[in-house]
Specification:
Order of helices and strands: HHH
Largest sheet: none
Distance between the termini: 31 Å
Radius of gyration: 16 Å
Number of helices: 3
């Protein structure tokens, strides 16, 4: 069973980068430093979550969400690269 990573606490940008760095190291460690295996696992996780999101979108009514619809992709403005040290 893979380790469950807690979502990062967004207190400030430095904390977020530290949490993200820790998560990257945890994923690589889990895969014995094999970056290709880590990427493959993360892509499989993304595929699974997209399928779950599609199922949830089909099951929920417009009245419950008041017109909100889930997004399958993040906005470009939400993507911040990991700072290299």
């Amino acid at each position: 069973m893979r380790p469950q990573l807690a979502p990062p606490k967004i207190l400030n940008e430095e904390t977020t980068n530290e949490d993200l760095s820790w998560e990257v190291e945890a994923v690589l460690s889990w895969h014995d430093e094999d970056a290709k295996a880590a990427i493959a696992t993360l892509l499989q996780d993304c595929r699974h979550l997209r399928q779950q999101l599609a199922l949830a979108e089909g099951a929920m009514s417009r009245g419950i969400t008041r017109g909100w619809r889930p997004s399958f992709d993040r906005l470009l403005s939400d993507r911040r690269p990991l700072d290299k040290q």
